Amino acid sequence: MSMDLTFLGTGSAYPSPHRGASAAVLRTNGECWLFDCGEGTQTQLMKSQLRAGRITKVFISHLHGDHLFGLPGLLCTVSLNISPDVQQSLKCVDIYGPRGLRKFLRVTLGLTGSQLLFPYAVHELEPTSDQCPEEGQLSLEMTEESGPPHPQEQPGRTISLDVSSDCYLLFQDSKFVVKAFRLFHRIPSFGFCIQEHDRPGRLKTERLKELGLKPGPLYGRLKAGESVVLESGRVLHPTEVLEADIPGRKVCVFGDCSSVLGEGAFRLCDGADVLVHEATLGDEHREKAVEHGHSTPEMAAAVARTCCAQRLVLYHFSQRYKPGSLLKEGDEDNVSELKNQAEQALQGRGVEVTLAEDFMTIPIPLKRQPTS
User: Fold this and answer.
1) Which of 4, 36, 66, 273 is catalytic?
2) Verdict on whether the full-model pTM lies above 0.85
3) Catalytic site residue 256?
């Protein structure tokens, strides 16, 4: 199963001619999962090789406009491109984000008279009081749902922190488990961990031949984890003829933050194949970055180091940092310096550092069978 991550917007604060506002798409198994949806994301999608109509899940890290303002427009544009004849077969789009997101969409879509041809559900994460300064906390009155739901709005869940694991379980299916974790920002912010389930190891064909079992349906049942009964009456268990499981891939996407809260994030993101973290300003501007709830390359590197990540991808750059492909001689605020700062902080750790650019796609290959 192929998997890749495409960045549609890698800038902070607002979309500019050289960097779109925050948005990234994880593509796997024919589906697209969107992480944040800043203003102009639908235009970026049109310029990419991705199809907006394949988006089945949306994850909003926090309610700042440069991560959210593009969502109502994107939903409406997707709807406009749907044939009314296929409405019955459309899946519900699941949208995950902080408390207040359901009201934002309900009011925005309602006031604009926006019609959708597909159902959607908003699942809200209940933040804790220590995720932001007091002035950034949203009151229940402000986020309380008001007015009738949109005709296409389906009931959504309210997801509270699991104190025992210090994380939020968003969903789990036969292929993935997706959880969220807490971050500190000017308003409550979250990160997301996408963990692919381990895959069964290879069959020990020589052992199967010794047992007199020929290739056929029983091989498939053993591979699927079922025990089978041999002609001799012996019960053969998968553990006897399967090599070690092949670890699933893990992708972690952090929202805006100046720090990580609790240990849940570090446990979840341990050994991440790809860890995406903001680096709004260079290390020389650390005080300013923290004051505004943001991180620098060295701070992002510290998270990657603690998580033993294989690859650190920096994004959410201040618009002062132009993409390397657009730099001219004499330009200040060279974005490559941000990469140097992260690499220096990770020296000797074997972590690959990447500077995200708009429309960059990062393949996430399958892991290999562990060596015995």
Assistant:
1) 66
2) yes
3) no
